[in-house]
Amino acid sequence: MRHILIALAMLLAALPALAQPPAPPQDARQLVDMPDLPRALMRSDMQDHLMALNEIIGYLAENNLAAASETAEKRMGQSSMGKHAYIARGQGPGRFMPDTMRQMGWNMHDAATEFAKVAKSGDQAKAMAALQQVTSSCVACHMSFRTR
Ligand code: HEC
User: Fold this and answer.
1) Distance between Cα 76 and ligand 1 center (Å)
2) Going by CA atoms, what residue is nearest to atom 21 of ligand 1?
3) Nearest protein Cα to ligand 1, atom 16
4) Phi and psi dihedrals of 85, rounded to 5?
5) For ligand 1, atom 15, which residue shows the shortest CA distance?
6) pLDDT of amino acid 8
7) Which single residue of 25, 41, 65, 136 has CA 20 to 30 Å from 12?
8) For ligand 1, which residues put their CB under 6 angstroms from it?
9) Beta-carbon count within 10 A of 33 CB
């Protein structure tokens, strides 16, 4: 019995070394090469999109549709476009995006502006549906492109 236990323990200890390391998940996204400045500008935009989205969900939970509308338009909507012009001087992220990616970016701004309009009208259910169009635009681009 004791020998069997020792043999079993040795076998168990050896198992991880025998097993092949698991393959990392596939990444099918297209790599978009960008210089450091536009990539940094895009990253700070992305961080702000996420924060804005979080605020919007909070406002919707409080039924404060006016504030949700304002945050969406100012931070993600059409009015937020081109805000880096002064720093970027023609080297903004959009310039380095393939056409489909740039279109996806515009779709996101359009969806945020559409959400802002719907939220302003005061219908919470319609606002939720419009917000999902915004998050769908995040998902579409994130599933297609990467920058590193
Ligand atoms: C036009 C394409 C596009 C759209 C639209 C888009 N993103 Fe991104 N986002 C990217 C890319 C590309 C990266 C970098 C991913 C990489 O290179 O691995 C990124 C990175 C991020 C990051 C990580 C930032 C960090 O800390 O490095 C966050 C958070 C993010 N996006 C949030 C959002 C949210 C929220 C939305 C929608 C409101 C959104 N993004 C819409 C392309 C997009």
Assistant:
1) 12
2) 46
3) 146
4) -45, -40
5) 146
6) 75
7) 25
8) 43, 46-47, 49-50, 53, 76, 101, 104-105, 108, 134, 137-138, 141-142, 145-148
9) 8
Q: What is the pLDDT along the chain (148 residues), one digit of tens a residue?
A: 678 877 777 767 766 666 888 999 999 999 999 999 999 999 999 999 999 999 999 999 999 999 999 999 999 999 999 888 888 888 899 999 999 999 999 999 999 999 999 999 999 999 999 999 999 999 999 999 999 9
Instruction: Quote the CA–CA distance of 81 and 109 in Å, as a whole number.
Output: 8
Q: Name 141's Cβ contacts closer than 8 Å, sequence gap at least 6.
A: 101, 104, 105, 108
Scan for tokens 């919007």, then name that residue.
56
Give the residue carrying structure tokens 């969806």.
Answer: 111
Nearest atom of ligand 1 to the alpha carbon of 102: 1
- The amino acid occupying position 74 is K
Between the CA atoms of 110, 116, 121 and 126, what dihedral angle is there, to the nearest 10 degrees? 70
C-alpha R_g of the chain: 23
Cα separation, 89 vs 148, whole angstroms: 23
Q: Report the nearest-CA residue for atom 11 of ligand 1.
A: 146
